[in-house]
Design goal:
alpha/beta; TIM Barrel; two-stranded antiparallel ribbon; 12 helices; binds flavin mononucleotide
């Protein structure tokens, strides 16, 4: 049974990727993911703010030592980049410790000085870079088009600095997901991760306070991902698709691949069921393939992507549902 898949131009032994999370924030955690059978890992994100705070530290020191060029060089060389240095070290050590692909991750909302630091992650040995671009639409005066332009522009800035494959992890708050997805892939994104899951606050009605909602997803949340993987795959998007949010069981892995995903990313299910759950998902995927006489992932990838006549399909579902309820 051939479970290999090609993601961002990398060969993975199976399509189950441990998504960016605390599991992938230490070398020990990454080794655990590899031992548990993951096809690849996406590292815990380095946040744009962390990179910027390092740059500010550097600026502070260079101001103080402005009068002495040697001290200035010393400060620039040795005191700069604590956060970046730690992250670079994580990549280096992880590369030495496991033989699965290591995808670095940057969480960002703005372009700027920090983008040039992406190259340091490449130089440390990252096999690819995932950009979690979270431009949140909280300002009513910013038009959707401007937000989308900003997302593409951030991607372009980073793409200029590195030669490794770059993927983009998107949220699902776009008016036309298909349009932004195609714009990014045409701009050179090697893959799209659908979707980022935002922390959803809720309200504690007894104390009348805004409180954080659950950090973990439930399986039912995967329908949006399934819909868009399916639609984009049917429309022939020229990049890899990775399904994230609500992939909890082997059946979900099968569904997302049938819809057109190349890989799935898992987090919440590992927090709920432990790292050993990767082996259950791999075994379940293999069992399903055996039952349906498939020898490789490619034989069924995209087999159930959306019908080409998407509009009719979507509208008919509503009609049918109305009839079911009557
Ligand atoms: C504790 C925790 C930490 C996370 N940290 C990051 C992060 O640093 N960067 C990122 O892009 N996503 C992060 N995520 C989001 C996950 O990568 C994933 O997109 C999300 O949990 C949805 O997938 P799931 O349903 O499999 O959990 C985090 C999720 C959790 C639960």
């Amino acid at each position: 049974m051939d479970l290999t898949t090609s993601y961002l131009g990398l060969k993975l032994k199976n399509p189950i990727v441990v998504g960016s999370s605390t599991f992938t924030g230490t070398v020990e955690g990454i080794v655990n993911c590899a031992k548990a059978g993951a096809g690849a890992v996406v590292l815990k994100s380095l946040f744009e703010e962390q990179i910027l705070s390092d740059i500010k530290k550097e600026e502070g020191y260079t101001d103080i030592y402005n009068s002495n060029p040697d001290a200035d060089l010393y400060m620039k060389t040795f005191l700069r980049g604590n956060e970046i240095a730690l992250y670079v070290n994580l990549i280096r050590e992880a590369k030495k410790s496991v033989d699965i692909p290591i995808i670095a991750s940057i969480n960002c909302a703005d372009k700027g000085e920090w983008t040039s630091f992406a190259k340091e992650l490449q130089d440390a040995g990252a096999d690819a870079l995932e950009l979690n671009i979270s431009v949140s639409p909280f300002d009513k005066d910013i038009a959707s088009k401007n937000i989308e332009d900003e997302v593409v522009s951030i991607f372009n800035e980073v793409k200029k600095t590195v030669t490794i494959p770059v993927s983009v992890k998107l949220g699902n708050h776009f008016t036309n997901i298909g349009n932004i997805a195609f714009r990014l892939s045409m701009a050179g994104a090697a893959g799209l991760v659908l979707f980022n899951r935002f922390y959803n606050p809720t309200i504690d009605i007894e104390n009348m306070k805004v409180v954080p909602g659950s950090a973990l997803s439930v399986e039912e949340e995967n329908s949006d991902t399934l819909r868009w993987i399916s639609l984009l795959s049917a429309q022939g998007i020229p990049c890899c698709l990775s399904a994230s949010t609500g992939v909890h069981k082997a059946e979900d892995v099968v569904r997302q691949i049938l819809a057109g995903a190349t890989t799935v990313q898992v987090c919440s299910t590992l927090y709920r069921n432990g790292m050993k759950h990767i082996a259950d998902m791999v075994a379940g995927l293999e069992g399903w393939m055996k039952k349906h006489n498939f020898n490789s992932i490619n034989e069924f990838k995209g087999k159930c992507s959306a019908s080409a006549d998407v509009k009719v399909f979507e509208r008919l579902q509503y009609l049918r549902r109305n009839n079911d309820l009557n």
